[in-house]
């Protein structure tokens, strides 16, 4: 029986017995007995393990909802909320520009943004106009869009294609994301946040700079992420919170051990994309007390967050009172992206093994992005899991795993593109290690050794070009290899072997 059903049965029996005048002690004992007899031992275990987590999550949710409703009723915008912060502590440092050491107080940021607002207003720009900002991460970036927002101008942030309407008309998206992070991870105004993410990205702009504008935190702006300087910066500016996204944590683990990596004040790392395979290595090596992993986006209708540091989880939903935050994992058609419905027209809940999965305690785990799982030899291959294994074997090297079509062969064969700028990777030593950790169907059939693997501005691996070029040596000058199962090793893939594979003369 589901936890909700068990709870309902227990409460129902309690109410019925009290209605007939049965004493409280006997009523409670009977209700407990009915609950346990209906599978309630499992519910009791869930309650004991998750009650404190759920209560804290509920308090965060209610606080954000209440504050958001109050701000909406008062018709507040982000610039208006920023004015309150300026009044509270005008001379506190708001932004630190790491490249020059320049410090902007809240008063100076306010005056700069006012100058921006007056400039554009005097030049005829009005409410609803759109101006593009094409600028590297620096304090002026924040001052520009904040100033535009003060007179109703929309900022189109180049490289992310995001128009921050919420800065002008309402605070629903901006406040919800910034406030949820603030309360869920127990941030406070005295915190110093290290932001090495691009400011055109919502994580750097909202989750990062948003803590400065709305809650008064000091934010250190890094012009460009540097793995070698990361912990030196954190120690220098006494940062207590860091942000990560994509592969940043893996890049940091790949650095040589240095003294500064344990001489910092960082207590919290907040972001998304931390691989479960390196989660504990990251927290132990760098002595980070809490990982604030979350899942969602600016365009999502809901988000989830890991508020208690559960290893590998990107969030949770209460199993005791699931309807308090009524979200469900449902299936979609991967081709049309439409919701799959049953004969009654209702959405179909996901089962364990789907893209985002939930365990018995309500913790949710990210498995793969839709479309990143391919089928080979009748089995589903998770690119995320294979990438994690390969990267671990190769000392956190950049790896992209994807499926490629082979003429006349059902499914897609696995292919791995590996960053190997110094040509140190030995394919057959790699294969020996893969045999120890991956089933045969998950081992890449093709390898591509490249000087580098393409990534986005937020350090996410790009696979579109790699998938398009496939294993065709005509399409690339990178070193290609084919897994010859008869020989039990990878062999160089040239034009002749490529033709034999495509004609079906070589068994895969």
UniProtKB/TrEMBL annotation:
Tell me one GO molecular function of this protein.
long-chain fatty acid transmembrane transporter activity
Question: EC number(s) of the enzyme?
Answer: 6.2.1.3
Biological process according to GO? long-chain fatty acid import into cell; medium-chain fatty acid transport
Q: Which reaction does it catalyse?
A: tetracosanoate + ATP + CoA = tetracosanoyl-CoA + AMP + diphosphate; a very long-chain fatty acid + ATP + CoA = a very long-chain fatty acyl-CoA + AMP + diphosphate
Transmembrane stretches, by residue range?
24-44, 166-185
Q: Which UniProt keywords apply?
A: Fatty acid metabolism, Ligase, Lipid metabolism, Lipid transport, Membrane, Transmembrane, Transmembrane helix, Transport
User: Which residues are in the AMP-dependent synthetase/ligase domain?
Assistant: 82-172, 183-324
Q: Which GO terms describe its cellular component?
A: endoplasmic reticulum membrane; mitochondrial inner membrane; plasma membrane
Q: Which Pfam families match?
A: AMP-binding
Statement: the UniProt record of this protein carries the keyword Cytoplasm: no
Listed InterPro entries: AMP-bd_C_sf, AMP-dep_synth/lig_dom, ANL_N_sf
Note the coiled coil stretches, chain numbering. none
Its EC top class is: ligase
Q: What PANTHER family does UniProt report for this protein, alphabetically? A: LONG-CHAIN FATTY ACID TRANSPORT PROTEIN, LONG-CHAIN FATTY ACID TRANSPORT PROTEIN 1
Family of this protein:
Belongs to the ATP-dependent AMP-binding enzyme family.
> What is the name of this protein?
long-chain-fatty-acid--CoA ligase
- The source organism is Callipepla squamata
């Amino acid at each position: 029986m589901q936890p909700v059903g068990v709870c309902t049965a227990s409460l129902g029996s309690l109410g019925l017995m009290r209605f007939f005048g049965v004493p409280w002690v006997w009523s409670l004992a009977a209700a407990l007995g009915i609950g346990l007899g209906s599978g309630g031992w499992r519910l009791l275990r869930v309650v004991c393990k998750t009650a404190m987590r759920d209560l804290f999550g509920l308090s965060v949710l209610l606080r954000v909802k209440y504050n958001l409703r109050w701000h909406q009723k008062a018709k507040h915008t982000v610039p208006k909320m920023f004015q309150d912060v300026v009044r509270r502590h005008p001379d506190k440092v708001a932004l630190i520009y790491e490249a020059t050491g320049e410090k902007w107080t809240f008063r100076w940021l306010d005056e700069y943004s006012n100058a921006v607002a007056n400039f554009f207003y005097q030049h005829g720009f009005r409410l609803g106009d759109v101006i593009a900002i094409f600028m590297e991460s620096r304090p002026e970036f924040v001052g520009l869009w904040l100033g535009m927002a003060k007179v109703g101008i929309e900022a189109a942030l180049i490289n992310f294609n995001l128009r921050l309407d919420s800065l002008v008309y309402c605070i629903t998206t901006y406040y919800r994301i910034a406030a949820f992070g603030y309360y869920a991870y127990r941030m406070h105004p005295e915190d110093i946040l290290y932001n090495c993410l691009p400011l055109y990205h919502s994580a750097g702009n909202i989750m990062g700079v948003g803590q400065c504008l709305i809650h008064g935190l000091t934010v250190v702006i890094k012009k460009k992420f540097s793995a070698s300087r990361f912990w030196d910066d954190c120690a220098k500016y006494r940062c207590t919170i860091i942000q990560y996204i994509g592969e940043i944590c893996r890049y940091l683990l790949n650095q040589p051990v240095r003294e500064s990596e344990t001489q910092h004040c960082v207590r919290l790392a907040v972001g998304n994309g931390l691989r479960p395979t390196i989660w504990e290595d990251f927290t132990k090596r760098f002595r980070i007390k809490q990982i604030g992993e979350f899942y969602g986006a600016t365009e999502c209708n809901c988000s989830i967050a890991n508020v208690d540091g559960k290893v590998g989880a990107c969030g949770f939903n209460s199993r005791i009172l699931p309807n308090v935050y009524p979200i469900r994992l449902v299936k979609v058609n991967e081709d049309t992206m439409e919701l799959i419905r049953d004969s009654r027209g209702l959405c179909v809940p996901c089962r364990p093994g789907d893209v985002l999965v939930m365990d018995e305690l309500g913790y949710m785990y990210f498995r793969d992005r839709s479309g990143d799982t391919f089928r080979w030899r009748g089995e589903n291959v998770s690119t995320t899991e294979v990438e994690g294994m390969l990267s671990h074997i190769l000392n956190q090297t950049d790896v992209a795993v994807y499926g490629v079509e082979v003429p006349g062969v059902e499914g897609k064969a696995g292919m791995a593109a590996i960053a190997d700028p110094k040509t140190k990777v030995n394919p057959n030593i790699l294969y020996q290690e893969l045999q120890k950790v991956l089933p045969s169907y998950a081992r890449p059939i093709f390898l591509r050794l490249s000087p580098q693997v393409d990534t986005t501005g937020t350090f996410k691996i790009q696979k579109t070009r790699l998938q398009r070029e496939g294993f065709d040596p005509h399409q690339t000058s990178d070193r290609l290899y084919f897994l010859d199962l008869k020989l039990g090793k990878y062999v160089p893939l040239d034009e002749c072997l490529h033709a034999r594979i495509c004609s079906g003369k070589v068994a895969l």
